[in-house]
C-alpha cells in the first residue's frame, strides 16, 4: 500500500485542530462539533464499505448509543462527556456484536436493505414506547468533563468540540492503521471477491463482522456526541433518512483516505448551514444535486482529488449480484 | 367473527394501493436492476397532482366523477413524462455502475423531489376529498365501509392482472421478460434495450403515481409522505422477492394484513411488525418468497 503520514504527525495534526478551536467563532465551533461527530459515523461506514457492503441503517447504532447514554445520564446522573462517549460506543458495539454475524452473509442491496429494515424496526419501537417519550423524545442535562461543569456556553461548546475532535481524530488514526494492516487489506479482498478470500483460508464472514462491529462502535460514540450537542434525543436518530445522510458523507469522501471523511463531513455541514441561511426550503435539493455531481464527476469521492490510486479505475462489478455470501462449497 | 372480517377487509384495502406501488418498484428493479429509493416520491407526486386536478375540477363546479377521471388522466400524463425525462436525462448516465451507486443516485433524486414538491405545493396539508364520496357507503356483512375504499380492491386486482397478462401473454411483455432474464442476449437478438429501459422506468413511475392518485382522496398530502411509503413498499418487494409480480401481490397482502391486525390488536407494534416480517423472510429466504435462486458468479 502507498506510504502515508506517520501516526505521530497525525496526532500533532489532531492537537493543532483542537487548539485551533480556541480562535474559532462560536457558530463554527458547534458546526465543527456536529461535523466531527458525523465524520466518526461516516468513517465507520467507510470501514465497512471496504468490504463492499454499504449499511443504510447506521442510524440504528447511532440511536442505540444516543438512547443508551441519555437513559444512563438521566437515571444515574452520569454527565461526564468522556464517560458518555464510552457508554455510547459500548451500546453501539454490543448491538453490532449481536447483529454483525447475523447479517454478514448478505451482500450488496440485501445487506443495505436488511440494515435499513433493522433500523426501522428500532425506529418503530421507539416511536411507540411512551416510557421513552415516544416521537417527542426527551431531554438530558448539560455534559461535564472530569468533574468540571461549564456554565459559560462558550466554554461548554469548546469542551464538546475538543472532545469530539480528539475522539474522532483518534478514531481516524486507528482507521488509517487498520487500513494499512493485513486485516485491512483482507477486507479490501472481500470486496473484490469474497469466495476467493475463503479459498485462501480466511473467513469472509468474520472479516465483515469485525468491520461491522467497528462501524457500530463508531456510530454509537457518534450518537453520544449528537446527544451532548443537542441535549435532546428523539426517534429521528434511527430514521432511515438520518442514516442516508451518513452514507452521503461516506460517498462524498470515498474510501481512499480518512482525511477525506472529515473534509466531506465539514463540507456537508457548511453546505447545510449556508443553504439554511439563503435557501431555507431547498437544502435537500442542493444536497441531492451535490450528491449526483459527486457520483458523476468524482466517482471515488473527494479523496481521489489528492490521492492517486496506483490501480486503474475499478470496473463496476465489484459486488456480485447474488444474495448469498460465503458458504464456500 | 366480525372483528376478524374487519381486520381482513382493512388489510385488503391497505394491500390494494400498496400492491400498485410495489408493482412499480419491482418492475423497475426487474428490468433496470435499480432499487429505486425515489419511488415513494413518485407516489407523493401522484397524490399531489391528483389533489390539484380534483380541486381545479371542483372549483369549476363539475361533479366528483369528472374529478376522479381528471385526476387519473393528469397523473398518468405527467408521471410518464417525468419518468421518461428522468430515465433518459439522468439514470442513463449511471448504467453499468455498481448497484449500490445506483441506489445512491435514486436517493439523490428522492432528496431533490422532496424539495420540489415542497416548493410547488408548500408544506401545509392538502386535501382532495371530493371523489371519496363517489361510491357512497356500503354495508358488508354488518360492517359499514366507504365505497371508495372497497372499490380500490378490484381496481388493484385489475391492474395486477393486466400487468401479469401484459408481461406473459403479449409480444412486448415477452421482450421485457427477455431483458429481465438476460440483457446481453436480448441485445444480440435485436431488442432495443434502451427503449425497454425507458418504457419500464416510466411505467414504474406511472404505477407509483397512480397509487398516489388513488389514495389522494383518502389522506392528507404533506411532506414526509414519500419516505413512509417507500419504507412500506421496500418491505413488500423484499418479502415477495425483488422483480416478481406474484411476490409483490403476496407481500402487499401480508403487509396490509399485518398493518391492519396490529392497528386493531396492538397499535404500538405497527411499523415494528412489518419490518419483523421482512427481517424474518430475509433471514430464511434472502431472495424473497417468490424468486428463484440465481447461480453465483465467481
From TrEMBL, chain B:
Residues annotated as transmembrane: 12-35, 42-62, 68-88, 100-123, 143-167, 196-217, 229-257, 269-286
Record's keyword annotation contains Transport: yes
Keywords: Amino-acid transport, Cell membrane, Membrane, Transmembrane, Transmembrane helix, Transport
Keyword set includes Nucleotide-binding: no
Broad class of where this protein is predominantly found: membrane
GO CC terms of this entry: plasma membrane
Xref: InterPro entries: ABC_transp_permease, BCAA_transport_permease
One GO MF term attached to the UniProt entry: transmembrane transporter activity
Localisation per UniProt entry: Cell membrane
A Gene Ontology BP annotation from the UniProt entry: amino acid transport
Highest taxon in the source lineage: Bacteria
Membrane protein topology class: Multi-pass membrane protein
Pfam families given in the database record: BPD_transp_2
Family note: Belongs to the binding-protein-dependent transport system permease family. LivHM subfamily.
UniProt-recorded name of the protein: ABC transporter permease
Organism per entry: Bradyrhizobium valentinum
Amino acid at each position: 500500500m502507498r506510504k502515508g503520514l506517520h501516526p505521530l504527525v497525525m496526532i500533532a495534526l489532531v492537537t493543532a485542530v483542537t487548539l485551533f478551536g480556541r480562535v474559532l467563532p462560536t457558530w463554527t465551533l458547534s458546526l465543527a462539533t456536529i461535523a466531527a461527530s458525523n465524520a466518526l459515523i461516516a468513517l465507520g461506514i467507510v470501514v465497512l464499505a471496504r468490504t463492499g457492503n454499504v449499511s443504510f441503517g447506521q442510524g440504528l447504532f447511532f440511536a442505540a448509543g444516543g438512547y443508551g447514554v441519555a437513559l444512563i445520564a438521566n437515571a444515574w446522573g452520569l454527565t461526564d462527556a468522556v464517560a458518555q462517549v464510552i457508554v455510547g460506543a459500548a451500546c453501539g458495539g454490543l448491538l453490532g456484536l449481536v447483529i454483525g454475524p447475523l447479517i454478514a452473509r448478505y451482500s450488496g442491496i440485501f445487506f443495505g436493505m436488511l440494515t435499513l429494515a433493522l433500523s426501522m424496526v428500532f425506529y418503530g419501537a421507539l416511536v411507540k414506547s411512551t416510557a421513552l417519550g415516544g416521537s417527542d423524545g426527551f431531554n438530558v442535562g448539560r455534559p461535564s468533563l472530569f468533574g468540571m461543569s461549564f456554565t459559560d456556553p462558550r466554554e461548554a461548546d469548546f469542551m464538546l468540540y475538543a472532545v469530539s475532535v480528539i475522539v474522532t481524530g483518534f478514531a481516524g488514526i486507528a482507521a488509517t492503521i487498520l487500513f494499512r494492516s493485513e486485516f485491512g487489506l483482507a477486507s479490501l479482498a472481500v470486496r473484490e471477491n469474497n469466495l476467493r478470500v475463503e479459498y485462501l483460508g480466511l473467513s469472509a464472514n468474520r472479516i465483515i463482522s469485525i468491520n461491522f462491529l467497528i462501524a457500530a462502535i463508531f456510530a454509537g460514540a457518534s450518537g453520544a456526541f449528537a446527544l451532548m450537542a443537542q441535549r435532546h434525543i428523539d426517534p429521528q436518530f434511527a430514521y432511515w433518512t438520518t442514516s442516508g445522510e451518513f452514507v452521503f458523507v461516506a460517498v462524498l469522501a470515498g474510501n481512499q483516505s480518512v482525511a477525506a471523511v472529515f473534509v466531506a463531513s465539514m463540507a456537508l455541514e457548511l453546505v447545510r448551514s449556508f443553504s439554511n441561511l439563503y435557501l431555507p426550503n431547498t437544502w435537500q435539493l442542493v444536497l441531492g444535486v451535490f450528491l449526483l455531481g459527486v457520483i458523476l464527476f468524482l466517482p471515488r469521492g473527494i479523496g481521489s482529488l489528492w490521492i492517486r490510486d496506483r490501480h486503474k479505475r475499478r470496473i463496476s462489478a465489484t459486488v456480485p449480484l447474488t444474495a448469498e455470501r460465503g458458504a464456500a462449497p | 367473527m366480525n372483528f376478524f372480517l374487519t381486520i381482513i377487509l382493512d388489510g385488503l384495502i391497505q394491500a390494494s394501493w400498496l400492491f400498485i406501488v410495489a408493482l412499480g418498484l419491482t418492475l423497475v428493479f426487474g428490468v433496470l436492476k435499480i432499487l429505486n429509493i425515489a419511488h415513494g416520491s413518485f407516489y407523493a407526486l401522484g397524490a399531489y397532482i391528483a389533489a390539484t386536478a380534483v380541486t381545479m375540477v371542483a372549483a369549476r363546479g363539475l361533479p366528483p366523477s369528472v374529478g376522479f377521471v381528471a385526476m387519473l388522466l393528469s397523473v398518468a400524463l405527467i408521471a410518464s413524462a417525468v419518468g421518461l425525462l428522468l430515465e433518459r436525462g439522468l439514470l442513463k448516465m449511471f448504467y453499468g455502475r455498481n448497484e449500490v451507486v445506483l441506489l445512491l443516485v435514486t436517493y439523490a433524486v428522492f432528496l431533490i423531489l422532496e424539495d420540489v414538491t415542497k416548493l410547488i405545493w408548500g408544506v401545509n396539508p392538502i386535501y382532495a376529498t371530493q371523489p371519496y364520496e363517489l361510491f357512497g357507503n356500503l354495508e358488508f356483512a354488518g360492517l359499514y365501509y366507504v365505497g371508495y375504499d372497497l372499490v380500490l380492491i378490484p381496481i388493484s386486482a385489475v391492474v395486477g392482472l393486466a400487468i401479469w397478462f401484459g408481461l406473459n401473454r403479449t409480444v412486448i411483455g415477452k421482450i421485457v421478460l427477455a431483458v429481465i432474464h438476460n440483457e446481453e442476449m436480448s441485445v444480440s437478438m435485436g431488442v432495443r434495450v434502451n427503449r425497454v429501459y425507458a418504457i419500464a422506468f416510466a411505467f414504474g413511475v406511472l404505477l407509483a403515481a397512480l397509487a398516489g392518485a388513488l389514495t389522494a382522496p383518502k389522506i392528507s398530502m404533506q411532506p414526509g409522505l414519500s419516505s413512509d411509503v417507500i419504507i412500506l413498499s421496500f418491505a413488500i418487494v423484499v418479502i415477495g422477492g425483488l422483480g416478481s409480480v406474484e411476490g409483490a401481490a403476496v407481500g402487499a397482502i401480508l403487509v396490509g394484513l399485518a398493518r391492519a391486525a396490529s392497528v386493531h390488536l396492538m397499535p404500538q407494534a405497527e411499523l415494528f411488525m412489518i419490518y419483523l416480517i421482512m427481517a424474518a423472510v430475509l433471514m430464511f429466504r434472502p431472495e424473497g418468497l417468490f424468486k428463484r435462486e440465481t447461480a453465483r458468479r465467481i
